[in-house]
Amino acid sequence: MLMQEWLIPYATTIWMMGLMGIVILVQLIVVDVAGIRVGHVPGAPVTGGHDDFFFRASRAHANTTESIAVFVLAAVFGILHNASPWWLNGGAVVYVAARIAHMLCYYGDVRLARSASFVVAFVALIVMLAAGVLAGVR
């Protein structure tokens, strides 16, 4: 089935939502495999620190799940308000790229780059929300 015509300008944002579903699934697999390898009991708190890959994988997954709702809400809000596709699609692409970078930096324990990618993703969310708000008040 083809995409509804009014959604075509936002195809990139919609693809980015799907890609984030894949990212979260990959993170879930990584953290589950890492947990199995260290003998983690499901439901028990994840202890340790940044020197432990399982801890970092768990935090990367948790951090993504903390921000994904804002991403989806900003995307849907922008689409329904007929926001500028340039800003909404651009913000979505930047968000996804920054979240992937954040994940990889967390896995590799590259702290400064991880923090920078977090900030970039956060700014992308603000851009997406602003695009929706600006479209809603015109």
Q: How many extended strands?
A: 0
Please summarize the sheet with the most strands. Answer: none
The succession of helices and strands, N to C, reads HHHH
SS element count, helices: 4
Q: Which structural class fits the helix and strand makeup?
A: mainly alpha
What does this entry look like structurally?
The chain is mainly alpha-helical and 138 residues long. Helix content is 78%, strand content 0%. The chain has helices spanning 11-38, 53-80, 85-108, 111-137. It is elongated and about 55 Å long.
Helix and strand topology:
Layout: H1 11-38, H2 53-80, H3 85-108, H4 111-137
Helix pairs in contact: 1-2, 1-3, 2-3, 2-4, 3-4
Task: Characterize this entry briefly.
The chain is mainly α. Helix content is 78%, strand content 0%.
Q: What characteristics describe this protein?
A:
mainly alpha; 138 residues
